[in-house]
Amino acid sequence: MKTLYLIPNPNYQLEARDHLEECLKKETETHREQLANEQQERINFESSILQELEDARRRLADLANITTERDNETVLRQKCEDELKMSKSKLNEIQAKYELTETNLTEAQKRIIDLQDQVIRLQNDLDNVESVQADFVRLSQNLQVQLERLRQQDQEVRWISPDDVTNCFSCNSAFPIGLSNSINSKKINCRHCGKVHCSNCTKNTMPAGPFGHPAVVCDVCHTLLNKNIAPYFSTTSLNNNNNGNNNQRDHFPSSKRFSLSSPTQSSTNLSTKPS
């Protein structure tokens, strides 16, 4: 076997070396570009990671703030709930006190109304008593005067002419002057005392004479002659009970006491009109 020996061509080696250097330069440039790109990508990635990390830190801080606020809100809510419970408890106590006070007020108002009614009744009773007492005193004094006149009638002429009289002997009402058809203007002689009275004071009659014919008598004589009826001043006082005699109360105070003498009936026989 024969061995072949290649004789190197100097030009060929130079071209190969240049070609190799060119290839190495291209590969180096390519690697440099790749390295620069990778470095830029790494820088961009690091920037992105740093940005995301910053965002994460910010979100974490916000979350921590939210957690803190939530905890604060929880504490505040619990505090508000406790205060609400206390307020409801106080409200219930106040409501119970209000209802009790309202009940007491209603009872007190009813009691006040009852006391006011009682005061009004007592005042009315007092006014009635004072009025009756004043009327009793006035009528008793009037009766005493009339009884005193009756005691002196033995020394006087009993029968009085109507023409000589201008006022009623009992109530002192004036008779009209001249002719009048009024019933109250009529002058009537009492068949017992002979005095002249108006028709209002001579509404009673008593039996007179052997046959008991009714004879007109005045109120005072009717009281004297009839022992089975209430006294004249007593019935008249009750009838005038509600007239409100304030002037008489001034003249006759309720604290003053009067002593009435016992009247003496001078005669039980009815007088007759002289012929």
TrEMBL record:
N-terminal signal peptide: none
Segments of this protein annotated with the region Disordered: 240-275
Gene Ontology MF terms in the entry: GTPase activator activity; zinc ion binding
Zinc keyword on record: yes
Sections of the chain in a coiled coil: 21-132
PROSITE patterns cross-referenced by the UniProt entry: ZF_FYVE
PANTHER family (UniProt xref): FYVE-TYPE DOMAIN-CONTAINING PROTEIN, RAB GTPASE-BINDING EFFECTOR PROTEIN
Protein name as it appears in the record: Rabaptin, RAB GTPase binding effector protein 1, variant 3
